[in-house]
Amino acid sequence: MQQKTQQGKLRQKKVVDFHAVKVACKECSLHQLCLPRSITGADLEKLDDIIERKRPLKRNEHLFQVGGSFNSIYVVRSGSLKTYSPTVDGQEQVTGFHLPGELLGLDAIGKGKHPCAAKALETTSVCEVPFENLEGLSQELPTLQHQLLRLMSKEIFDDQELMLLLGKKTAEARLSAFLLSISLRFKQRGFSSAEFYLSMSRNDIANYLGLAVETVSRMFTRFQEDGLIEAERKHIVIKDREMMQKIAGMNECCEEPTDEQSQLFV
Amino acid sequence: MQQKTQQGKLRQKKVVDFHAVKVACKECSLHQLCLPRSITGADLEKLDDIIERKRPLKRNEHLFQVGGSFNSIYVVRSGSLKTYSPTVDGQEQVTGFHLPGELLGLDAIGKGKHPCAAKALETTSVCEVPFENLEGLSQELPTLQHQLLRLMSKEIFDDQELMLLLGKKTAEARLSAFLLSISLRFKQRGFSSAEFYLSMSRNDIANYLGLAVETVSRMFTRFQEDGLIEAERKHIVIKDREMMQKIAGMNECCEEPTDEQSQLFV
DNA sequence: CTAAATAATTGATAAATATCAATTCTATAC
DNA sequence: GTATAGAATTGATATTTATCAATTATTTAG
Description:
Oligomer: homodimer
Distance between the termini of chain A: 47 Å
């Protein structure tokens, strides 16, 4: 028990790679998931020039607040964040979790204001990409424009996947699909897809999935009893992925892309 | 009763404006909602040149199918469509409704394939915008690139609004928010926001909102009993918008934009 | 215009999830 | 290290919504 907690702490430390903060796009391990994809040489340096690397955020620090004016989009380098919106009844509604390589702020371009707030779930570093500069550079570099449009399209696609989830399913389907989604995203970033640490609380998960915390907790318990997962607090091991996919009621869209698919059509 | 049905039919006819089908972007009433926004003169003609106006779709005809290869994005000129995805259990899950001025296909850019199908809910005409040409032209015209990014951002924003809805609320909150959303979208297109016809079935609404048809039907009945709406089949009159907003648990993001806001930052 | 098919409504019951309450576990501050 | 606050779990109950079944209304096809 004590040991597992130790593991958790060790891993949290490993995630924060302060050396990486100053690394150029060229060297960045997220290169393939990020805007620089398919840009090279002098063009890559132009992009590199407009990107600002901010000091890491501590846990619970905000990257931006609701209603804050939109100037930049952000890419997570390490750590993770949640985005959330206030609701009338003074509650907050979690709208997303953001892992390394994922973008934040794309929903703010239209109105010029952030419709949601972003808060770090752990020590987290991000790259800031001033949007005006990015637009300007995209004007010069067709492949950058294309990649930007692709990433925005992916965001739309991912949101619709989630809508499928929230719209229809039972509590167990929602949680199962959530865990598989996190697993897949870790895998795409070069981490294990079978074993990982959740940086968000059960409360955040419940809120995100539109369930009560108690229900989420009970589902974790049930999944363990049924041998689908091992869960020790935030440490999760996927034991029976196939069954979880069945429970999640997944269609082929949600499954892991083959190498072919993941290359897309750059 | 007979009369109301008549009204319904008349309105359906009015929506289909065959003359409009050949009209250039310059003349199109959706100009301000669409890609041509903030483009004029020779540039507008360039855009106009790449846009194809397709023959109107009949009710239940498909604009594109799931898995179909992505070549173009589409703008609804008149009529309406639903998009939907197949689920494992052979059902379909409705992912969106698309009214005049709204775009379809943005979720397909990333993978190059349509993750959902689009089917006309009534006689419907669309503009087809070949995506390669649009990308090329956006490369030339900064304001077009900007508008394209804005529209994609709006799509992301709208999807997240819906997620807020599906994630948390009760059946009555969902239906109320749905009706208010449709109302607002009609208003933005110059139609009445207090009285309109729903082109989709109760089944589609229920599916979209993640509820059983029976539940939706009961909610319509309850809303009428409580004097919130008048509903005669597909004909809806909003009687107490304020109360509906309360029930929907809306935050300021969902409300009608002021003139200021609706100008955005073009 | 009539018959058949489809869509919508209504009622009764079952199932799922939220809520309330209490307890245990974990992390944090001193 | 201990005390305290916060997070997670578990149980009992209430509420909501889905499901099943039947009826009515509307649209479509001939």
